[in-house]
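FAQ: What does a ligand-bound record look like?

Like this one, built around magnesium ion:
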Amino acid sequence: MQPKTISELLSQNTVIPEVEIKGWVRTFRANRFIALNDGSTINNIQCVVDFEKFDEATLKRVTTGAAVHIKGELVESQGKGQSVEIQVANLEILGDSDPETYPIQPKKHSFEFLRENAHLRTRTNTFSAVMRLRSSLSFAIHKYFNENGFYYMHSPIITGSDAEGAGEMFKVSSLDPKNPPLTEEGKVDYTKDFFGKETNLTVSGQLEAETYAMSLGKVYTFGPTFRAENSNTSRHLAEFWMIEPEVAFMDLAGNMDLAEEFMKSVIKYILEHNREDLEFLDKRLQDEDKKKPQAERSDMTLIEKLNFVTDNHFKRVSYTEAIDILRNCKPNKKKKFKYLINEWGTDLQSEHERYLVEKHFKCPVILFDYPANIKAFYMRLNDDGKTVRAMDILFPGIGEIVGGAQREERLDILKEKMAAINIPEEELWWYLDLRKFGTAVHSGFGLGFERLVMFATGMSNIRDVIPFPRTPQNAEF
Ligand code: 4AD
Ligand code: MG
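The answer part, i.e. the structure of the complex:
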């Protein structure tokens, strides 16, 4: 088989008289050396041009960003940094790129600038590496579930229910927003809408996944989810992807085991299959780190962090134990927590989560048995009557990466909890049916895919790990 991509060409160790490649020019040095990239690898292939053999007009068109088609001989490279290169015999310009206006110059650009050029930012080393890793991670996720007896379930994007009961939904409506039909009470009449009722974009596929777990046994969803929360942080998106496994006859302890094994397995996959990209990103981070004062430098490299997660047990700690630790800690004499935790029953802020993970335990942490009042209605109430079988997984540098729970399987208690927060039974009649017909213990969790990609790539802003980020201020593309 003839090598077809730059990745394949670079792995050759024999001379090949005729090779052919298409890609985009990264740089053209001394009218002689084209560094060409086609997206198949972080590495460019060097294409050596004998300028006497080509007319000046063609060579002038070899500019950064131009698409070219090259034919030539693959030979051993005399230069440093690569084992092979192409001696160009044929050079065809497929698409010009005006060097005056092409935004991606061969120099370091800020991530802010590249975010404004999200349509071209994968032409850079950092973003192409991040997006190849994103693709690999999603493959590893499907692979893990496929090999472990799970069915892939497609949960709906348009739905009438609010899975998290938090009211953070984007409405879907075909009605004219300026002049909607009104009911006698003057409210928007959604019975006249396309779907005949009020609908929204899904915040989570969990409730629908529960219906499938209660027939197919082990299922997972992996799709886009939407949150209309006005959080402008480096960890929140209005549109993000979530992986949600749901398993019948599995309790909270089983849920923790599954989450830990699953996370380790997908991280192992990229350590084995995406070495070059990880090494590139690792070096980038180490260079950034060197610019920081000693005290702020990371004590592990990216690859060490990934290995640490795969090799160590996630620490399991109850919410009550965590609150005790936070109450008694002295995080830093000068810099106290902005939000102090004094009372049992308050939710943890991300600074608390990060303290537990990064300073106290120094490893991934699974927090469980949260107070019922700060968690969603569907979580299984414990016998103490005040905590629920919830679990959050906290990762270093990220904070919450997974949220999950054992589900309330008892009809009467679920109805009470829904009534307490005014969810009408008619709205979730089908969800209640699962508790009427063959109910059973079941559990699941949601992994925020972009937060996993952040952890795996060391990127510090969630906007830089999804192709076209949707945040309160940004939906240009
Ligand atoms: O904790 P959350 O809200 O849990 C659920 O949605 C459950 N229904 C999941 C389940 O049990 N099946 O969200 C789960 C994860 C979070 O831990 C976080 O990683 C991610 O989804 N997440 C977000 N990621 C990016 N932007 C946002 N706005 C996010 N909100 C949640
Ligand atoms: Mg959560």
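Follow-up question: can I read anything off the structure? Yes, for example: The chain has 13 helices and 16 strands.
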